[in-house]
Structures are given as structure tokens and as C-alpha cells.
Design a protein that fits this description.
Chain lengths: 341, 145
Amino acid sequence: MKILAIESSCDETAVAVLEVNGQNYKVLANLVSSQINIHKKYGGIVPEVAARKHVENIIPLLEEAKITASDIDIIGVVNGPGLVTSLIVGLETAKTLSLLWQKPLVPVNHIKAHIQANWLKGDSGSLQNILFPAISLIVSGGHTSLVSLSDKCKFKVVGETRDDAVGEAFDKVAKLLDLGYPGGPIVSQKAINGDPHKYKLPRPMIDAKNFEFSFSGLKTAVRYEIDKIKTIDDQVIQDMSASFQQAAIEVLIKKTIKATQKYKAKSVLLGGGVSANNELRLQLEKAVDELDGVKFYQPDLELTTDNALMVAISAYFEYSENKAKYVNAWKKVKVNPNLEI
Amino acid sequence: MKKYICKNEKDTAELAKILVKKFKGGEIIALEGDLGAGKTTLTQYIGKEYKIKKITSPTFVLMKVYAINNAQCTIKNIVHVDCYRLDEVQELFYLGIEEYLNKPDTIVVIEWADKIKKYLKNFKKITWIKIKIKKNYRILEIKKT
């Protein structure tokens, strides 16, 4: 089966084509538009508004994927959560193709897709054999959640952030340190040579008896520390970045491990934009390895940020569960910016 | 102009209560204050007054709409807007903010509202709240337009 997938929930426009036969898969196309490519293609400045960017990107991307109606079997598209104006571009495009080509349309939850990206490893091969129950930690600029899975498509949120997402906290700390926006990756970069124990920062809710997170106060604590320091030189920036990153990671890991034990999970899956953070990957993997009989999965680096390949595999799983549901679905699928898992 | 001092979250909760009592619908709460000032916290307490339990940061999606499930209450929605990562006011326009500003059954709370000060001049019933960060407390300056 060949799946065409479209993702446009935030700033990236992405198109992918994935072929799945039984347990084997092959990536036929995986395109993400960055502004740079679009500038090259059009030789001009693209307007700031994300939705307009999507409108301009989507057709060239589909052309570049070189697909025709006879090449594909189903169409998958993200219908939430995300920015409503951005989501609409991807969904309306997918609906049009679905009607025109008479192919089933499968709406995909962006967060579930981040989790399901873990079934892919490399450009071709067999789907990962992930054992259930599984616990997934989803970390991004807009989300911080712990999700339990009893099967590929059976999800339950067990904990979420009460205020800021962890990726957002990274961005805001970058801003406090004057590192620019979006600063998450810069903070991680600065943290490499910093001392993670230099500044005493709180580990919000680390001992709370639930799986909820809070990162707003951690950001404020960083602010207080910065206010105490007279000169913010590179050493301070490195140490503060490292101390903040360590505080955030420790909470994420401790809660993930606790959830893994409580739900007797056999697999731990990482996902979302912040899962590109090397320190989080290393420390979580180490913590999971210490548990008996639990396997750790993390997505390929290029699948940590928003992409359409994860949407393709998600659409494939959902479609396989209930094929009839998606015939003529183009008539009723709507965007939902606050779509829950 | 009124000035309040909030030493802890309890004070913030108290202030939210005072604000909410005066709401009749259509109000806009425009929040100013640096990172860590407590803008989202104040919004969460305003939400709590309407029994909205889970208000999370709208920074990423710019705008979140929460429905108030209370038949007796004439206010039906709380809209939480964040201009922190806004490049131009048009983005809010595309997200449909004008459907909510000054709408009689809606309260709109805007973080980093100073970024869209000029645009907000087109609307009425605005309460500007400027939060200043002090070492162990916050000063909130409240001004109505």
C-alpha cells in the first residue's frame, strides 16, 4: 500500500510518500519545505504569515514528490492540533486530492504521529516490533505529555503540562539569555560545555504523585538567577543553559520512568521536536536501560521535527484498523486546532 | 490607575476574583510584563473563576479558546491570546481574533499586549495590566480605557 501524507500544522509544510507491504516499508519521498528552498525556488521573499507560506509551498512539494493518482492508495493528513490557519491549507489540499482521485482520506492526529514515527528506522526495512503496553514521552514546543499505548492506535494521556511546554521553556530561557528565537537548539548547544550543577534550579513537580509537568516556574527561576548575576558572559550562558537543561530533563526522565513502572510498560517511546535534544536522548536511554526488560525507542533525528513521514505511517495504522471509515471521509473531516489524543 | 501588590499565588488568585466580579462580557484584558512575570498564572486564575481547570500557555498556537460550561453565566468563552512570538498583527487577524474582541459573551485575555497596542486602539473595554517583577513580589498597575 502506498500512502501520500501531508503535514502543515505549524511552520513546516511537508509531503511524504511511504510504501508499506506487510511488515516492510520503503520511503519513496520525504519532503519538508524550509524557507531557504522556497526562497531559491521563487527567488523572492516569502511573507511572514505561516498560512501563506503553506499555500505557496504545498503544490511545489506535491510536484516534487512526483505522484499521480495511480501511484497511491490512501491520503493521510494532519487535522490537528496546531494553528488553525496552517492546518486548513494541508487539509483542504488533501480533501481536494481525495475527491479528485477518489482515494480514502485519513485524518491524522499530529501528536499520535510523533509517537508512531518510532515504528520507522531508516529509509527502508521492516517496521519496528514494539511491544505493548508502551509509554511515550512527547516533548515539543507546544506539547509535553506522557501517553500510554495498549496498541499501535490505542492511546491514553496519563499526564500533561499544566502551563508551558518544555520546548517553549527552552525557547524562553534562550530569550532570557539573549540567545535569539527559536532558541531551544542554541540552549542545548551552549549546554554542552556548561556545568549542569552550577546553578541550583528547581525540579518542578518531580515528586508529585501524578504524571503532570510544569515548566513555567522553572523559567522564572532561571530569570531570578540571571537577575543576581552582574555580567552575563559566555561562561554564565553555558552554565545556565546546562543547569536549566538538566533540571528540565531530570523531571521528564523521572516521570517517564515512574509511568513506565506503574503501567508495566515493555517499551518507552520518545517523540516530538525536543526529542532531538542529545542530552535527553542519552539520559533517558540510560534510565530505561536500567529497567529490566524495557526497550527504548527514539525516532530518527530527521523525524523528530515536523515531517509528513510520521503522518504516513500513522495514516497507514489507522486505515488498517478500520478501512470503511475513511471512504468519502473528505466530506466530513474538519480541522481541530485543539485536537486531543 | 490602581496598583496591586501580589506576594504569592494566593494574592494573584484574589486579584483574579476582583477582576472577574466586574466582568459583564466583551472585556479585553491586556497584559504587559516580562518573561516570568506571571501573565499566564493570572490568566489561569481568571479561568478558575469560571471553572476552567486547564489553561495552558498559548505561546505556541498564539490563541486558545475555552468554553465556559455554565448556563447561568452570560459569558460563554474565555479567549487566551499570546503575542510573544507574533510577527505581525495580521496573524491574529487570520486566526479570527476579531470574532472575539468586544464580543458580549466573551472575555479576551492578551499576553504581551504591548506588542499590538496600536491595533487595540480600535477596541473598547480594555483593562491594561502592567506587571512589574520585583525580587519577591509583583506590582500590578491596572488602567482601564
